Amino acid sequence: MSSDLLYSDVENDLRAAVRGLLADRCAPADVLARCESDAPYDAALWRTLAREVGLAGLLVPEKLGGQGASAREAAVVLEELGAFVAPVPFLGSAVLATAALLAAGTGEADAVVARLAAGEQTAALAVPLPTAPGADVSQGVRADADGLLAGRVTSVADATAADVLIVPATGPDGPGLYEVRTDAPGVALSVPVPLDLTRPIADVSFDGAAARRIAGPETAAAAVERALLTGAGLLASEQLGLAQWCLDETVAYLKDRHQFGRAVGSFQSLKHRLADLWLEVVQSRAAARNAADALAGDSADAPVAVAVAQAFCAPVAVRAAEECVQLHGGIGMTWEHPAHLRLKRAKADEIALGTPGRHRAALAALVDLPAAG
Fold first, then answer.
1. Model confidence at 108: pLDDT above 60
2. pLDDT at 373
3. What pLDDT does 1 receive?
4. What is the DSSP letter of 330?
5. Most buried in the list 75, 287, 290, 337, measured by CB within 10 Å?
6. DSSP secondary structure letters along 95-131
């Protein structure tokens, strides 16, 4: 039975609510100003999205205080957040960390999830942002018998906005998931200058940091894998939203910009470029929606759908952002125009949670496609 990949009325209503709030609170000038400040995250906007709109608990069952929605609804939210390059930790907290905790399925993990869903805390999954599904992430940090963590994890997304870290670590009896506060003794965050100024990353070091184990060897590795798969699949929707914004803004600009007494957009060569880009964005929508639907239905084909979506959507987002910058001409190269923020997010997303090449290789293995000789 084929799935309906069209947007439902509930999804359209959710999109309208999120888009309206972002249009009011996340204007391009405001995002640019935050990029130049010492507080790139918009904490006030995140509180509104997390608590009042309920996005922090979108994937969380109602019995744990969440909205009981699915990956389809989360995908719609990420389309809008990607379009506005909103500086909020939705991907790190409401998707990656929450998905890992839900997959762990322990009472300790559920308690953390309830706090996240209520907007009382924000979390980050302490894995390097470029980590693809299928990778072993438990070797960077070790835990002793007392739950003290030692080690280092680089390029953790949304760690600087997090109250707690969900840390995959190897303990005396094997892999586990540990909860540790970011302000705990023995936890140090080093913040490099990121390519994407709207999603800061942090290198996290642990030196005898006291942590609480929330999942053991029975579920920890599978929980992290589920989080990475969910994150990669939903990241495709962020890339889709970004690409759609770039296409829409470029079309609007070329209609308005005149040269030689006519709209620049009427030149046939530019029409062809935009038509090609439109087709790629439409195809990206199909791939991203299919991945979200497969994740929502816990389909056995979800790994295939995610690999297809990431292999296709990531390059399209980069191309859309590049076309946006180039076709805006001189103004597209300026700091004041928001196109560069989309290009930087697109390039950063291209390596996040696995590069397109990594996902193509995974797809080949999943469908038994022989490697090139």
1. yes
2. 46
3. 42
4. G
5. 75
6. IIIHHHHHHH--HHHHHHHHHHHTTS--EEE-S-TTP
DSSP tag of 51: I
Give the pLDDT confidence of 288-335 residue by residue, as tens digits: 999 999 999 999 999 999 999 999 999 999 999 999 999 888 888 888
Q: Which residues lie across from 187 on neighbouring strands? A: 206
| Chain-centre distance for alpha carbon 132 | 13
Q: Of 319, 276, 210, 241, nearest to 74 (Cα)?
A: 241
336 versus 342: the higher-pLDDT residue is 342
Please provide the size of the chain in residues: 373
Instruction: Tell me the sheet residues that pair with 164.
Output: 123, 181
Query: Which residues, in sequence order, are CB contacts of 262 under 8 Å at separation 6+?
Result: none
Residue 85 main-chain phi, psi, to 5 deg: 40, 50
Three-state secondary structure call for residue 195: coil
Q: Would you say 118 and 57 are in contact if contact means Cβ atoms under 8 Å apart?
A: yes
Which pTM was predicted? 0.94
pLDDT bracket for residue 119 (50, 70, 90): very high
State the angle between helix axes of 356-366 and 302-327 in degrees (0 to 180), rounded to the nearest 10: 150
Q: Give the mean model confidence (pLDDT) for residues 61-71.
A: 95
State the amino acid at position 17 in one-letter form: A
Cα dist. 251→154, 297, 305, 358 in Å? Answer: 39, 36, 30, 32
